[in-house]
Amino acid sequence: MAAARAQLAAQQPGGTEKIAAEARVAQARAQLANARARAALLTLTAPSAGVVLSRKAEPGDVAAAGKVLLELADS
Question: Of 9, 23, 30, 48, whose CB has the highest number of CB atoms within 10 Å?
């Protein structure tokens, strides 16, 4: 059914361009979803509210499990 719709759309004026544009939109949406998922994995969240006293790692450093990245004090 989808193939028949695509073939019919391709025969319409501007149909091929529309199909290509829809494919680009779908690809952009997938890339956005991927970027959001990666950003969620790269976001640090403190276990409680506080003030950063010192930074033990620099941006770009590899953070291993259990490595202290920031020293926090209660606010």
Answer: 9
